[in-house]
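Lab manual, section 2.4: Encoding a predicted structure.

Procedure: take the sequence of the chain (756 residues), apply the prediction step described in section 2.3, and record the output as structure tokens. A sample record is shown.
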Amino acid sequence: MLGICRGRRKFLAASLTVLFVPAITWIYLFAGSFEDGKPVSLSPLESQPHSPRYTASSQRERESLEVRMREVEEENRVLRKQLSLAQSRSPSHHRGNHSKTYSMEEGTGDSESLRAGIVAGNSSECGQQPAVEKCETIHVAIVCAGYNASRDVVTLVKSVLFHRRNPLHFHLIADAIAKQILATLFQTWMVPAVRIDFYDADELKSEVSWIPNKHYSGIYGLMKLVLTKTLPSNLERVIVLDTDITFATDIAELWAVFHKFKGQQVLGLVENQSDWYLGNLWKNHRPWPALGRGYNTGVILLLLDKLRKMKWEQMWRLTAERELMSMLSTSLADQDIFNAVIKQNPFLVYQLPCFWNVQLSDHTRSEQCYRDVSDLKVIHWNSPKKLRVKNKHVEFFRNLYLTFLEYDGNLLRRELFGCPSEADVNSENLQKQLSELDEDDLCYEFRRERFTVHRTHLYFLHYEYEPAADNTDVTLVAQLSMDRLQMLEAICKHWEGPISLALYLSDAEAQQFLRYAQGSEVLMSRHNVGYHIVYKEGQFYPVNLLRNVAMKHISTPYMFLSDIDFLPMYGLYEYLRKSVIQLDLANTKKALIVPAFETLRYRLSFPKSKAELLSMLDMGTLFTFRYHVWTKGHAPTNFAKWRTATTPYRVEWEADFEPYVVVRKDCPEYDRRFVGFGWNKVAHIMELDAQEYEFTVLPNAYMIHMPHAPSFDITKFRSNKQYRICLKTLKEEFQQDMSRHYGFAALKYLTAENNS
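Recorded output:
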């Protein structure tokens, strides 16, 4: 019906245009052809140069009027052609509104039409659709479980945030994994006018675990059935979305459809666009009962208050129990049960136009949901093949999806002007800290970075870890950016234990990393590597923030604080676990030093023993780390003693000491004020010494630094005088803070710095 109204409006507009534009044009031309109340001829024969009224300016005006007149005549011709085409199409539009194919027109609330499987328009669709109030909160519920689904949710949320103009309240039914990931993500995303509430999916398992389900979504694919019981009792309506949804319009348009519900309509659904429920996909195909083609539950509008009054819980349970006696299990999870209920109670459903759920699975009729790009509202990747699905326009849909997948999420932190936001303690504290900084300070950008909140996505890939029975396990901790990805496979081959990595990437780079990892047999065979994405923001590489993120999310009692450019010796993981016991690291404050070496060769025959390493040192194939650039950084390790040592030995802290150490997980964090190049590890080792950690060198451990191009930050340090001045200022401030915090014991750091 809406299509008919639109067609009539276009027909009327075109008719009025054709009638009035020529009239107005000729009035304009006629009025313009008078000067001093007398007519001025437009004919070139009557406009002679010798005429006293002839001037160059009046000639140009006449020529421009003639050109404009021809343009208007051409516009009228085009309008008449469009009008004739619109008239010829009008009857077919009217017939299409009553066909059984998928229509783009508005949904129906007519239960008789639903029983017949007819897509028809509401009787009053010519009226203006009720608008959503400017600051009205839109509620969205999503069931999310696991690592992969958490990534999918981010893309869905980006597409919603990109188009939205209203406050949003996301209700996330999540397992422990998804909650940890998404809680951190939204806390660090800090999007204004967005509220997040979590509901424990694991507690809901008992509500649906009695239903056998063959669908790949598993038990979580049934949890939309219990939303009336799970969500707050005062929540009246909610939009429920699958994680594989992409929005191409403002979600407020969908929220406004609630106003169209009539009578006992409590469910807003789009008809299923495949033949699944028709039961003709293969021989002996026996789907659950459904009304016609059935309905897809990837997008649902739920009137929760009415559903509760109708005793929805009892309704779907009785239906499921009855059907399971013959069907034995569900094939499409909650969708089968929703459809069985609707089959018995068709008055419950308001049929949404199919552009609200364009289903991109194989062999669907989704192409009939849109005639143009502007018709698209919601895209649903509801095939296990996801982006590899067969569809005539799949390239367009894939590109739209990839746009949001790689879109910079920081750009979505925009305010909704005119809408009051709930007080956010984190945001208020951040603003207070930033306001205390002096923007005229030449080191302002350095100081500001300390307080920058970087959006963080924990466990970007699947992660599994089984705790060691002897409680001696050690996690290798490191950080990297896109230009060091090539080191990952080598490190995984050298270190078989758990690894925690913080990666500093843009949204687009995160997807490149995902493709790289998924294409690597080495990386995909390792499930004990935690990849934590810290998204780029600002001009500095936040090296110590990255280290802190990687440190915070380890699952072992001990950690080996390394850098991505180092390859640990083969067998170091097991050696460190034995050293932890031998040196009683559980009950003493020790930092076990792994001596660092380096090679200038990109192709290195890695030494398999200490004896082989010493031989390579003597031949000049290996060197002690940074001996020719920054000797002080590792000199206290005492490499001369290490050559012959057979037992661990203690060394004392010295100025600028920055070894790579194994410590308990409760050691202090790195200081965030140090970014980019310079003093980031030195400050951490200094604080370990201030806390009376004992530095012990391991006699049979080593690691080797592999060559690489200079980083951008070290280039800035070397070329930018202001960079070096600010680093010196930050060092002095750090030392002053150490003195205030640790008192008299910290004075030696000031003395050592002055003497170095």
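Check your result against the sample. Residues 708 and 717 are 17 Å apart (CA to CA).
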